[in-house]
Amino acid sequence: MLLTSPGSPCQQVHSQLFAGMDLWMKRDDLLHPQVSGNKYRKLKYPLLGLQGRRSHVVSMGGIWSNHIHALAHAAHALGLPATALIRGAEGMHSAMLEDVRALGMQVRFVNRETYRQLRLGESAWRTHLEDAGANALWLPEGGSAPLALRGVAELIAELPFIPDYLAVACGTGATLAGLLAGLQGRSKVLGIAAISGGDYLRTEISRLLVDAGYPDYQNYELLTEFHHGGYGKVAPELLDFSRQFVHETSIPLEPVYTAKMLFALRQLWHHAYLAPDARVIAIHTGGLQGARGFVSI
């Protein structure tokens, strides 16, 4: 079954970049070969709710969106029609768009203003996709619906131990919120914003928790200074760091999310932000297909 998984391994990290640190990595990049990482967990319960129904699934993203890529594979496997509203203009190309079209997903481009309107709520998309049907399922950007938190929360039960810190990259805040839901007040989550101006994510995290029926947990810290220029921006020092990490550990990375999180974690470790005896688990959120848009690491 596509949406049933035995979980992912948690392995100790041995790298000179983190010398002396008790660091482990939750390898959610290994959850599924195409429906990768946190996208698998976030899609699980929204799509399980469609079992036995041929509902049209509609979502939004950019031309390299990990969420859209994962959704296309999941919808294809489940026999569900799907449409992606993509920020951009007709004629734009990417390997991700080629993949999803080959899987039968419809792609419709929208301009930046329309994309901003789509972010405002579920009702906005219907003016751009009137043929989806009354029972269509709308998934917001990144798949970050309140129901997504339930799938992410299941990660905690798979851990070999509850660490002092969990570290995770943040795009919409839903994965961090799901981890808080699973931890139920234990440990502390370090959220590394992969976007510039990410302070607003604190409001999103609280909203998602409350909307999903969880307490508004506050055992986390959101760090917003490690975005390397903004979403999808990659500095040379980040690429150098990623290459060394991959060489030493054989754990593949992509530079948009997980590499930024690990780079930040190394800075925190070397600046004594973390206690010398702290046990840390870093979450690999997958999305390796997105690395195709960058210089190889």
Automatic annotation (TrEMBL):
Residue ranges constituting the Tryptophan synthase beta chain-like PALP domain according to the UniProt record: 19-286
Annotated keywords: Pyridoxal phosphate
Pfam families: PALP
Cofactor(s) listed: pyridoxal 5'-phosphate
Keyword Secreted: no
Family designation: Belongs to the ACC deaminase/D-cysteine desulfhydrase family.
Name the record gives this protein: Pyridoxal-phosphate dependent enzyme
Lineage: Bacteria, Pseudomonadati, Pseudomonadota, Betaproteobacteria, Burkholderiales
